[in-house]
Amino acid sequence: MNISDKEEIREIVQGILTDYQKGRGIDKMDVLHQPDQNAILDIVQKLLRICFPGYYRDRVYKGFGEENRLSVLIEDVMYNLHKQIAIVLSDNPEYESVPDKSTDEEAARITTAFCRQIPKLREYLDTDMQALFDGDPAASDFDEIVLCYPGLYAIALNRIAHELFLLNVPLIPRMITEHAHSHTGIDIHPGATIGKYFMIDHGTGIVVGATTVIGDHVKVYQGVTLGALSTRAGQKLRGKRRHPTIEDYVTIYSGASILGGETVIGRNSVIGSNAFITKSVAPDSRISIQNQELHITNDSDLGYEQKSLEQDKTWFYVI
């Protein structure tokens, strides 16, 4: 068979077009009612330049004075964010019967409200930078933290997304946090509420669910899950608290899982590595998994010698 045969191609095309007509979720055709992912990522990069003016270079606006440079950036962000929000609102069932003009006005209102929150965003991000610097002896300065640490990048994008989430913007907040997830391995839902001085160290494999509440001065290490106790009920759980509350000054070490909407980790507690917690923990608690016995086998002239190795019970506190 000649794979360039026009009749074969026509039949394949007709078969796919017929398959498009089945009315399934995968059959949606109107791409113009979807937000532009590249445009959203461009908005995020501009917001990072606004939030961290001395860390991200401007290739276009270098010759401008500070006020003019910021004015151009803000105007660019507002114009494009307004456009993307209008698209996602118009595709939302709540706006099906709303005139286009009203939808556009609501998108403009949301965009302005979001941009007015930028000083608050910067206030929180400043505390996150400080928490990382204070908590990580490997950090040489703020430049290294902003430009190199995946934890701060994930937190920054989450804080941007969370403000849009609070303004009831569909889809776009999740697109922002999923970009951070794919870029860093850190998965924080935009619905999660996170206090000041939040420190993510190393970060890979962290999962923070949508209804999680995290207080101030919380430290989280790689592989931690703040998740739901059960998701078998699926969409029936929408809108219900499914994820834990982490109070102030809590440290959660690598591999720990804390699950359930009624689970509260009390202030000033330390959760050791690989702990699996589904019930609340009182303030000032120290949770650890009892050490497993390690055996070391060495090859020697007379065969194999097996030794037991006793571990320091505080091993999991050190990263």
Give the C-alpha Rg: 25 Å
What's the architecture of the largest domain, going by CATH?
Orthogonal Bundle
Spatial sequence of strands, sheet with the most strands? 1-4-7-10-13
% residues in beta strands: 5-15%
What's the total number of strands?
16
Do you know the CATH topology of the largest domain?
Answer: serine acetyltransferase, domain 1
Estimate nothing, just give the exact number of structural domains.
2
At the first level of CATH, what is the class of the largest domain?
Answer: Mainly Alpha
Q: Quickly count the helices.
A: 8
Describe this structure in words.
This protein has 319 residues and is of the alpha/beta class. The protein has eight helices and 16 strands. The strands form four sheets. The chain has a five-stranded parallel β-sheet with strand order 1-4-7-10-13. Strands 3-6-9-12-14 form a five-stranded parallel β-sheet. The relative contact order is 0.07. The model has no long low-confidence stretch (mean pLDDT 88).
Keywords:
single chain; 319 residues; alpha/beta; serine acetyltransferase, domain 1; UDP N-Acetylglucosamine Acyltransferase, domain 1; 5-stranded parallel beta sheet; 8 helices; 39% helix
Secondary structure: elements and pairs:
Blueprint: H1 6-20, H2 37-51, H3 66-90, H4 100-115, H5 118-135, H6 142-148, H7 150-166, H8 172-184, E1 187-188, E2 193-194, E3 199-201, E4 207-208, E5 213-214, E6 219-221, E7 225-227, E8 245-246, E9 251-252, E10 257-259, E11 264-265, E12 270-271, E13 276-277, E14 286-287, E15 294-300, E16 303-309
Parallel strand pairs: 1-4, 2-5, 3-6, 4-7, 5-8, 6-9, 7-10, 8-11, 9-12, 10-13, 12-14
Antiparallel strand pairs: 15-16
Helix pairs in contact: 2-3, 2-8, 3-4, 5-7, 7-8
